[in-house]
Amino acid sequence: MASASPPDLSMADTQAPPPLPTEGEPKYGGFTRFEIELEFVQSLASPYYLNHLAMQKYLESPPFIAYLKYLQYFASPPYTKFLNFPGPTLKNLELLQQERFRKDILSLQVVQAMVEEGGKASLHNISS
């Protein structure tokens, strides 16, 4: 799939998570709602992307913040199994619920610290 861009927030007009992918489900631009939300939530694993969202002022938008809250359904089964990098994805999604973090991620020092932390975690997992 192409690189993730902020989603169309009109898809989050209901509070229920989308059903798991099935045949015959409506498609938006060739993808199901679940596929679009999955691609977007996975992009949140990147501290650089979080910084980009903050710089574009998305993290100041109440509808966008509500969308991030809605996406927390990915933290529960059966949705978690679809995430390629569940650790950083869910950690960052949780951090994005905090106003302080949404402001702090504008700092390149915070971004760099997150990148370094992620690299250390990867090295630890390889050596374990």
TrEMBL record:
GO cellular component: mediator complex
Keyword S-adenosyl-L-methionine: no
Region of interest (Disordered), residue spans: 1-28
Location of the protein in the cell: Nucleus
Keyword Isomerase (UniProt): no
Domain of life of the source: Eukaryota
Function: Component of the Mediator complex, a coactivator involved in the regulated transcription of nearly all RNA polymerase II-dependent genes. Mediator functions as a bridge to convey information from gene-specific regulatory proteins to the basal RNA polymerase II transcription machinery. Mediator is recruited to promoters by direct interactions with regulatory proteins and serves as a scaffold for the assembly of a functional preinitiation complex with RNA polymerase II and the general transcription factors.
Subunit structure of this chain's protein: Component of the Mediator complex.
Name of the protein in its database record: Mediator of RNA polymerase II transcription subunit 31
Organism encoding this protein: Coleophoma cylindrospora
